Amino acid sequence: MTAVAVLLATFNSARYVEQQIASLRDNKTAFTVHWLDDQSTDDTRALVEAVAARSGIGLVSWHQPRRLGVPGAFFELLERVSADLYLFCDHDDIWQPGKIDATVACLQGDADRPELCFSEPLVFDNDNPAKSRRYFELAGVSARESQQLSRAFALNPAIGNTVGFTRSLREIYLGHREIARSHAVMHDWWMYLLASSLGASKLLPGVPTTLYRQHGGNAFGVGLGGKRRTFGLMWERQQRYRRLVARQARGFLAAAPGLAPGPSLPALLAAAAAIQGLDRRQGVLHLVALLRRRALLLPWRRALWLACVCAVSNASPG
Predict the structure, then answer these.
(1) Would 199 be classed as within a structural domain?
(2) Alpha-carbon torsion (224, 225, 230, 232), positive or negative
(3) pLDDT-derived band of residue 224, with 50, 70 and 90 as boundaries?
(4) Is 224 part of any domain?
(5) 45 and 121 share one domain
(6) DSSP assignment, residue 150?
(7) What pLDDT is recorded for position 227?
(8) SS3 for 95?
(9) pLDDT of residue 202
(10) β 116-118/201-203 pair status
(11) Which of 98, 178, 273, 276 could form a disulfide with 249 if both were Cys (CB 3.0 to 4.6 A apart)?
């Protein structure tokens, strides 16, 4: 029997987590929730245990004595849990009926091969899941554009709450865990990069997916529009983005000598090399080259805004 592990990390999740856990029930696949609570100070732990028991969901706890944050909490779960197939689970979303089934159907029988699949989440605001928008629409890209290797270090198409992957891909992660922990922007993005280097990532269209909740506490959110941002906030967000993506690119380059020579690895190495210095002030010629090779964010207005920020400053911490 295939062992399916749903990796759930929580932190002060009492407002949303009951709805998330309850949504996991609507699947035929047998699975176990492996849960790490990251030092919550509200009623999260008692609530998760009660809802899982009431829903008949198997629950294994992996709590740690120190705060790990994100992606650290998910990396901790990934290193501790042994299974055939893995799915990342955020604490504040809602999974559509059959989402686990669709992911397992994609990966079934491939546990010994490094494979990753994901779907396009439906993004909603706070407590209104009936009014949702597609993730790629909000990101300003098509599904095809989002998966172009030249953009792999600028945009992550594989949002963690939609991702599933095999034991074999997890073993590749384990071989570079220290680099991942110190360099990855997020757990989902790092696993997508590893899978993409092997040509082993797949978007599943037309399957049940995640209702991706946006609220004030998202670790990384998706703008739904309608909210005005000050110049200062936009500037700081771009500076933080530059620091994170440059660090992740340097980490991937450091891990690359230990990766198998997959069909997409050369293109990813070229993309990483182009992005690794993005936290430093950029010359005009380099920025033009990045724009021409479509290595920066889309749509073009966002890419040009980022290019302007890069042209006049270093992304030093504020």
Answers:
(1) yes
(2) positive
(3) low
(4) no
(5) yes
(6) G
(7) 59
(8) strand
(9) 96
(10) parallel
(11) 276
CA dist., res. 33 & res. 24, Å (int):
9
Mean pLDDT to the nearest integer, 34-63? 97
CA angle 268, 274, 277 (to 5 degrees): 125
The DSSP code for 227 is -
Joined tokens for residue 97: 């009926």
Q: What phi, psi does 58 have (nearest 5°)?
A: -65, 135
Measured distance CA(277)–CA(279) in Å, rounded: 5
Instruction: Annotate 10-45 with b (16+ C-beta within 10 A) or e (fewer).
Output: bbbbbbbbbbbbbbbeebebebebbbbbbbbeeebb
The C-alpha angle 95, 96, 99, rounded to 5 degrees, equals: 80
**Domain shared by 206 and 126, yes or no:** yes
Q: Nearest-5° angle of CA 11, CA 17, CA 23?
A: 145
- How confident is the model at residue 108, as a pLDDT? 84
- Cβ atoms 121, 211 nearer than 8 A: yes
Task: Name the average pLDDT for the chain.
Answer: 93
User: Tokens 């998330």 correspond to what residue?
Assistant: 20
H-helix or E-strand containing 65?
none
Residue type, 287: L
Domain span at 294: 231-312
Q: What is the pLDDT of residues 20-38, one digit of tens each?
A: 999 999 999 999 999 999 9
Q: Which two tokens stand for residue 142?
A: 């098509």
Question: Which letter does DSSP use for residue 121 in this model?
Answer: P
Question: Do 160 and 102 fall into the same domain?
Answer: yes
Structure confidence at residue 77 (pLDDT): 98
Q: Taking residues 186-191, what's their average pLDDT?
A: 98
Residue 245 belongs to a domain? yes
Which amino acid belongs to residue 202?
K
Whether 276 is covered by a domain: the verdict is: yes
Task: Let me know: does 201 contact 265? Beta carbons within 8 Å.
Answer: no
Sequence letter at residue 114 = P
- Residue 226: is its pLDDT beyond 70? no
Does 149 lie in the same domain as 183? yes
The pTM score is 0.94
